[in-house]
Write a sequence for this structure.
């Protein structure tokens, strides 16, 4: 549990300044999206019938549905034990796979006026050990108890129980598998709406809703009205067309995005400095090797050093990190020490509140109205920089340079395009410094650049054995 660290932090909190009158508005975030970005670290909890069957999802080639009796071993599941480990890892919000591709739900859904489906039989209620229990309720309460904002994952485009694969409903005339119910496209999307409406009504303060694969255009209008009325503040992953609080996938599950990570996108959802939509990225990745989201029993996990790299390439690159947690069939969460060590690393190297550090610098005057400065009275050894742009009025900075000086001697230089919520710059080696200059080379003419934070820090951290 113990760990060793040495952290030195110099911080500059910078107010905005003006190069002229703003003549037109740029794309600005909602307050909900700004808050979401500030949390930085979420958890994807992959636990459903897939876990019990040792699979990563139900494909169209399956010959039978996983039996609800597979959940027998999980009757002692304790969601608070998960929440404690997530809290130690630094997780601020989470989503649980309340329905994955097999169609199995972790609550007993209500069904209203859908021909051929008077009751949704493929749920946790079909297991006699869980009759009368609502696992979604238990998860929700546990997360809130430990200060983690709960949300839900729902795979709209796949439901093996109802014969839906890759967003396509099984054609008429197909012989269903044992226990399978086949619906029309209209009936299926009405059922999807009822599922989401029930969750939204029961949990109106949910934090994030994860649409794996997005939402097809013909299902958006009705869901958009539901979101506006029931859950107007929820953040929706790939929820294009449903709400203004949309976050996007960065194109990889590695945790190392290769896209330019602007907060704004064009009409196609591609990141762009001139984007008209505020769709920041969420970098989802696994802790198990091989992109395995559900527990695979192999006992192979990524190292702390690799997860450090993931953190720097995601959170340190303007992308919230959605870290996978994969409980086993009995409901036990593995790799606890990995998660705890990762949380120690984040909290020690990148504290959320700079005022806890004794080496603190207030805002100096601006030079030539083009640069922000961090200055120290004495030289300090550093190995990384943290930059945060103030985004309340938009993503203003389009190009910048960073200069690190020691007694007027340049010891480090870097340049970049976006800063946005956060950029972490790792130096090639530790340098002594007394001044950091962030020079804005290009910005939106109709936006006033401002910085929220500049920090120079040294962090030595090793994982305890």
């Amino acid at each position: 549990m113990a760990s060793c660290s040495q952290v030195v932090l110099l911080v500059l909190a910078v107010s905005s300044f003006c190069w002229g009158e703003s003549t037109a508005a740029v794309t600005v975030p909602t307050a909900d999206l700004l808050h979401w970005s500030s949390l930085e670290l979420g958890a994807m909890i992959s636990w459903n019938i897939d876990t019990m069957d040792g699979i990563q999802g139900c494909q169209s080639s399956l010959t039978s549905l996983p039996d609800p009796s597979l959940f027998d071993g999980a009757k002692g599941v304790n969601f608070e034990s998960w929440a404690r480990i997530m809290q130690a890892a630094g997780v601020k919000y989470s989503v649980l796979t309340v329905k994955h591709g097999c169609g199995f739900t972790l609550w007993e859904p209500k069904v209203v006026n859908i021909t051929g489906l008077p009751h949704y039989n493929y749920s946790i209620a079909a297991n006699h050990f869980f009759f009368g229990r609502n696992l979604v309720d238990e998860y929700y309460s546990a997360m809130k108890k430990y200060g983690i904002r709960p949300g839900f994952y729902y795979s709209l485009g796949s439901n093996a129980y109802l014969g839906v694969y890759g967003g396509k409903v099984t054609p008429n005339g197909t012989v269903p598998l044992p226990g399978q119910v086949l619906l029309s496209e209209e009936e299926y999307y009405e059922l999807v709406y009822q599922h989401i409406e029930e969750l939204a009504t029961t949990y109106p303060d949910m934090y994030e809703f994860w649409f794996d694969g997005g939402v097809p255009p013909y299902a958006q209008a009705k869901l958009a009205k539901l979101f506006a009325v029931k859950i107007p503040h929820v953040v929706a992953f790939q929820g294009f067309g449903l709400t203004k609080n949309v976050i996007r996938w960065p194109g990889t599950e590695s945790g190392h995005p290769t896209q330019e990570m602007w907060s704004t996108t064009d009409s196609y959802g591609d990141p762009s400095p001139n984007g008209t939509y505020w769709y920041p990225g969420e970098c989802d990745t696994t802790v198990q090797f091989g992109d395995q989201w559900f527990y695979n029993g192999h006992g192979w996990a990524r190292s702390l050093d690799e997860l450090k790299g993931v953190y720097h390439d995601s959170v340190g690159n303007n992308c919230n990190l959605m870290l996978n947690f994969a409980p086993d069939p009995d409901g036990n969460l593995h790799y606890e020490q990995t998660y705890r060590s990762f949380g120690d690393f984040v909290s020690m190297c990148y504290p959320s509140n700079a005022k806890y550090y004794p080496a603190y610098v207030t805002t100096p005057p601006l030079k030539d109205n083009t640069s922000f400065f961090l200055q120290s009275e004495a030289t300090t050894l550093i190995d990384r920089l943290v930059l945060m742009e103030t985004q309340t009025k938009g993503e203003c900075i389009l190009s910048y340079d960073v200069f690190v000086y020691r007694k007027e001697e340049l010891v480090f230089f870097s340049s970049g395009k976006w800063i946005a919520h956060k950029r972490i710059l790792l130096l090639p080696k530790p340098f002594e410094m007394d001044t950091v200059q962030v020079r804005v080379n290009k910005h939106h003419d109709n936006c006033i650049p401002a910085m929220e934070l500049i920090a120079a820090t040294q962090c030595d951290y090793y994982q305890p054995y």
Summary: Residues 126 and 275 are 47 Å apart (CA to CA). The radius of gyration is 24 Å. Confidence is low (pLDDT under 50) at residues 1-24, 356-366.
